[in-house]
Amino acid sequence: MSAPLREVRSADWPADTATTPAVALLLHGYGSNEHDLTGLIPAFGLALPWASLRAPLELGTGGAAWFSITTPGNPDARPVAEATETIWDWVDTNLAATTRVIPIGFSQGGLMASQLLRTRPERVLAPVVLGGFVLGASQPGDATLAESRPAVFWGRGAEDRVIGEAAISRTSMYLPQHTSLVERVYPGLAHGIDAAEAGDVRDFLALHAGIPAATGR
To answer: Which of 63, 92, 154, 170 makes a 20 to 30 Å CA pair with 107?
Structure first.
């Protein structure tokens, strides 16, 4: 087992998660850190406990990564699997077995959000993939997902030049065949998250994860 992941948690994190139906997991992108997505919590309407995890691969720049970049948009399956297991190790250590996770990931973190769904679909609720993509290799939960078709949000910028066309095409084929996909493409947005996307995430979580959407934006 790898070293435990570092994280920051919400102030309302329960001492015992056994009475908590679900918690959100924030998964940052390549070169970022566990503080990156926390500023979007109000915009996402996350009125439930959350933890923002730091990826295990230190880059020496204050940032971290879930896995090394070899071929952009087409990572090797083994390091992705290892990173996925590292997240599940954290979940198994810190959450009750009955608590589901709502993964919200950006870029590499978006891939990791999809990996959690594809490896333990019964444990995941309403995953959010922002500027991310899915792994090309088959995963243990794919057959289950093809039957259950859980809700997934996939948002990306129309001007995103970081995630390659092959990765987008692969994801565009996989998600409609395995999920009840909510897909949004944002004109003028590059590799980032804007207010329109954050608002759509808020609405998605209110509908599919039972998180009440706050009034006004």
So the answer is: 92
Contact yes or no for 198/43 (Cβ under 8 A): yes
Q: Domain map of the chain by residue range?
A: 7-208
pLDDT tens profile 62-93: 899 999 988 778 889 999 999 999 999 999 99
Of the candidates 73, 88, 117, the residue with the CA atom closest to the CA atom of residue 1: 88
Beta strands of the chain (E only): which ranges? 7-9, 22-27, 50-53, 57-58, 64-65, 100-106, 128-130, 151-157, 180-186
pTM greater than 0.85 (yes/no)? yes
The CATH superfamily label for domain 7-208 reads Alpha/Beta hydrolase fold, catalytic domain (3.40.50.1820)
Burial of 173 (C-beta count, 10 Å sphere; 0-12/13-18/19+) = exposed
Q: Which residues face 153 on adjacent strands? A: 128, 182
Q: Tokens 């006004």, residue? A: 216
